Amino acid sequence: MVEPGPTTPTSPATPTDPATPTNPTNPTPAPVASPVATNGKLQVVGNQIQNQNGVAVQLKGMSLFWSQWGGAFYNASVVNSLADNWKVTVVRAAMGVEEGGYLTNPAAEKARVKTVVDAAIAKGIYVIIDWHDHNATQHTAQAKAFFTEMAQLYKNTPNVIFEIFNEPDYESWNEVRAYAVEIIGAIRGVGAPNLVVVGTPTWSQGVDAAASNPITQYPNVAYTLHFYAGTHGQWLRDRADAALSKGIALFVTEFGTCDASGNGNLKLDETGRWIDFMNSRKLSWANWSLHDKPETASALVPGASTTGNWPDSALTPSGAFIKQKLLQ
Known about the structure:
disordered N terminus; TIM Barrel; eight-stranded parallel β-barrel; alpha/beta; two-stranded antiparallel ribbon; globular
């Protein structure tokens, strides 16, 4: 739900460490004992996301910041540090679409995403390719072309999850659903069975609307639930439970420890209640955000290293709390 706000002190950078080229026909096997080697292809069954053995799986990790402003963190060293030192099992590449993002510089933003994706593949963790947009129904053609290309690249790679609409704001579920059916159709049309996550109305809090009229044309679809602990409380957990009871699977691809603005009202006690809720229901989650913007939701203090291996002194209160939860 966080708007990008003013330009952050970290200037975006084109990735300098080249990604390993992806071979869509014969992807690199996941490292032994890595999350992907253990769990393999993800599949929605009922209201659960299950692994290759039919066991409910819960991924936990971090979301990167909007790529056009947080691009300096879109590198393999950051992914490796998160996997090795924070024990994340998923990382989210939040590719900004508007405001100088993909619509303006498609090659640069795509390169950043692929760098993160290929680093995650090499590390054996899951990765979300996120169309980070509040107005995706206005950019259907561009989204369709982008996800068709990504699906062709990564259709044989179980690590990759497609998040096709980050946060619808004022669109109805009928509008979002129609968009999603078209984009998922393009993904499935090139033979990609990957898990797809679909945003829900009102900044991805409207999971009740999705549960009342889920997408039935295609398999392996989950729905987005976002919360910010300083703004969203028990009422949204109740709504999530009601949606789960109707049989849809949820994925918390983004949440914050503070107000929905991303700044102020740090609520670690309420965040803890949310994390207990997600853990008890096996809801996968990614915290917003792995970035050094001077705001409460950032995990890193301003000026923190853009190449990882952060000391405790480089973590904000939010970052220290989330890292501790990831290591539990």
